[in-house]
Structure formats: C-alpha cells, structure tokens
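Sequence, please.
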C-alpha cells in the first residue's frame, strides 16, 4: 500500500496531547500509521490527497450502537413510546431476523457512520434469532472497512420469568457463555492497530440474571476483554433496579464486578452524584447517547458533572430504531447543545464535544492507538469539506459542529480509503440499500 500525503488542510485539528491546530497542515500515512504531521511536507512518492478548503480531524469513535436496528427505523407503535414500551413493540419484529438481516443492516449502519466521519465503532448485539451470530456483523465490518468492536450481548430472562423480552428471544445462560468464549477465541485481536476486538455484553439488568452478570465479568477478565451493558437509562430503569435488586444501578454494577477501566456502560442518564464518583474513581467509562435519550424521553445525562468528576465519557449513536439516525458528528453537536440547555451556554464548547467524539471514545474503548492525529497513532482520518454552503462565512474550525457539514468528503481507516469524494469506496452502497429496503418490506 503506497504512502498517502494529506496536504494543505485549512485547519488540522489534531486532538494530540497539546491539542494543536495546524493551519495548512499535512499528514503522512504509511503502513496504517501516521508517520509525519506538520506543514509543507515533501511528497516523496506518496499519493497526494489535497485538503485545501477542508478541516481534517481524527476519525470519530462510536461507543454504543445496535446495528441490526437500521432495518427498523420509525416503526409505527414505537415512535412515541418510552423505553420499555418501545422495546415491547420492537421485540416481535426483531424475532423474525436471520443472518442476512444482521449482515445487511450492519453494512448500512456502518456505512452511515463512515459517511459521518466515524472510523471505529462498537456494536451491542444481544439477540440471535433464526441462526444469527455475531460473525454476521463482523463480516459486514470487514466489507465496509471500519475498525470494529463487536460485543456478544445476551438476554436470558424472558417474560415468563419476569423479564421484559419475549421467551423466544432469550438464551440459556450456559450456551451464552460458551458462545462468548467461541467469538473471543476466534475474532478478538489484542494487538496494537487491531481491526477487531470483541467484548462481552449482557443486555441489561432487566433482561439477564445476577449470575450471568457476575459470570460474564469473570469470563471477560479471564479472557482479557472488555465489558459493556446498558445502565441507568431512564426512570423506569431506576425503579426496576430498586424494586428487584434493592439498590440503585451503580451499586448493582459494583456488587457484580461491573466497574473498572475495562467496563463501559451505555446511557447513564440517571446516575446520581455517588454513582458518578464511583465511576470516576474506578475508571468506568460511559457511552453518552444524546439523540436516543431525547427520542425516548429518557432525559439529559449529567455529562458536565461526569466530565468534571473525571469520568471517561464517549459518544454513541445507539440503535437506529431509537435515534433514528446514525450520524456521529451530529451526535456530537447534540451532546454539546443538551449540556448548554441544562447548564448554560458555556457548559460545553464545540472543541470539547469533538474531543469526546474522538479521544473520549478511544479512551473508553481502551484504544490509546486511536483518537488523535499524532506520530505513531493509527491512520484513521476524517476530511471535511468546509467550502460548501453549510460553512460559508465561518470564522473558525468550531463551525464543524456549530454549522456543518455533517458528511465527510474523505475517510481513511488504517490508511485505507473508505470514503472518497463523499461516496463509499469499499462497497456498492446503492445495491446494499436496495437489499436493505427489500428486507424491511419483508419484515413489514
């Protein structure tokens, strides 16, 4: 693979340790790594990508998604429901999925992310109907070309046992743990620059047992992989925890081994001060999903308080059945706006929101090799054309979040071009969209 020289960016927002922003900035990519950052770098045989009229940033990092849900956007009956009612509307639809639905929906979701500047995404897949496997989404990520952290989720307590999901979608707990071992052994890559790392992710405290939560934590630590679940998402979630466990979600997580720098929880909208301090002291990460939290009426997560306390906070677009979009740069803007609504206009700057979307996500996923433009880091780069109408009249690189655009011109992952001139370069996206819509019609 030839070296690539990204040359002459109007502003190069590095998010390095010094938070440098370089006017007329250049980046040399070689062997999947950033090898030079500066100005007026010589070509030296590299393929040149001209970035005049562009802002260049690190690739964005998405830390919470349910990719399969791109097949169930705007489903009637779930459009205006709270979390539990929304889930009960969608569970019977998802029960009809199979391997192709999982693979195609993941390709669509990952492409949508790529076009919004994302180079690294996690995914939380917790149901496996009709022969579906985590392997289906990993295959999709390989085709699209994004760096991927799939998590093997699970549900084990169905309606007949007092849980929320229908019995047809839950699994035997021994079989769940056995398949977790299989996918970790087959796909997890702990090396620097890994394209796939697998996590273990029982769905939520209201769909799995205490034993499975505890056993999953033990297994993950034995295997050296990360843990992920939903936590403290809304008032219903808190009430369920108090009624069934006799404690708040933070205490429940701590009691079962679900705190530490190898754990990240999605949402955390209703964490209280004590729980925020627990997460800060233990290094536990949070995936903040502002658009989904708005859509489901869950509330505004205390991101300002979490950040001030030292909690590692990242962004997630959440599932496309509850967002209903998967645009990560738009998610960063929403995160900034909600903190301002709650705490005042100076509560979060555009640059802090972009930092959460890049370095913040990399830190939560344990990727110190990603999230910034610096020598030795992975060559995951987003190039944003700011010469269009969205940015006309802009004075500062902060316009990327304050004004736009919300779609990248070019995207590089591990030095390979995934988006070129605003179009997917790795897959035939119109063909995949056609198949996605056919599958959705079948589900209807």
């Amino acid at each position: 693979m030839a070296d690539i020289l990204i040359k002459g960016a109007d502003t190069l927002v590095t998010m390095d340790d010094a938070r440098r922003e370089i006017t007329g900035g250049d980046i040399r990519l070689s062997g999947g790594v950033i090898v030079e950052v500066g100005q007026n770098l010589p070509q030296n045989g590299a393929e040149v990508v001209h970035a005049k009229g562009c802002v260049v940033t690190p690739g964005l990092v998405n830390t919470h998604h349910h990719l399969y849900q791109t097949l169930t956007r705007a489903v009637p009956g779930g459009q205006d429901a709270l979390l539990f009612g929304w889930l009960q509307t969608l569970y019977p639809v998802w029960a009809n999925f199979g391997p192709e639905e999982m693979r195609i929906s993941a390709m669509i979701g990952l492409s949508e992310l790529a076009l919004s500047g994302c180079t690294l995404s996690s995914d939380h897949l917790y149901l496996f109907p009709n022969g579906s496997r985590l392997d289906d989404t990993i295959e999709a990520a390989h085709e699209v070309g994004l760096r991927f952290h799939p998590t093997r989720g699970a549900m084990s307590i169905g309606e007949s046992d007092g849980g929320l999901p229908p019995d047809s979608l839950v699994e035997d707990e021994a079989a769940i743990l056995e398949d977790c071992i299989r996918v970790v052994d087959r796909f997890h890559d702990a090396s620097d620059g890994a394209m796939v790392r697998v996590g273990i992710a029982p769905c939520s405290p209201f769909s799995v047992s205490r034993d499975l939560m505890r056993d999953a934590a033990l297994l993950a630590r034995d295997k050296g992989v990360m843990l992920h679940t939903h936590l403290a998402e809304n008032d219903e979630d808190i009430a369920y925890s108090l009624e069934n466990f006799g404690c708040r979600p933070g205490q429940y997580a701590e009691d079962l081994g679900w705190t530490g720098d190898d754990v990240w929880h999605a949402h955390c909208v209703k964490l209280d001060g004590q729980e925020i301090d627990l997460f800060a002291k233990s290094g536990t990460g949070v995936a903040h999903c502002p658009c989904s939290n708005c859509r489901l009426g869950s509330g505004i997560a205390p991101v300002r308080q979490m950040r001030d306390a030292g909690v590692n906070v990242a962004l997630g677009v959440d599932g496309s059945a509850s967002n209903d979009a998967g645009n990560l740069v738009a998610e960063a803007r929403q995160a900034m706006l909600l903190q301002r609504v709650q705490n005042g206009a100076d509560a979060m700057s555009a640059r802090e929101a972009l930092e959460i979307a890049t370095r913040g996500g990399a830190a939560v996923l344990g990727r110190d090799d990603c999230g910034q433009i610096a020598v030795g880091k992975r060559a995951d780069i987003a190039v944003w054309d700011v010469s269009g109408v969205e940015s006309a009249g802009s004075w500062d690189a902060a316009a990327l979040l304050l004004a736009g655009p919300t779609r990248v011109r070019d995207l590089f992952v591990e030095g390979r071009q995934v988006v070129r001139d605003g179009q997917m370069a790795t897959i035939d996206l119109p063909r995949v969209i056609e198949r996605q819509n056919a599958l959705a019609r079948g589900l209807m």
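Residues 62 and 121 are 5 Å apart (CA to CA).
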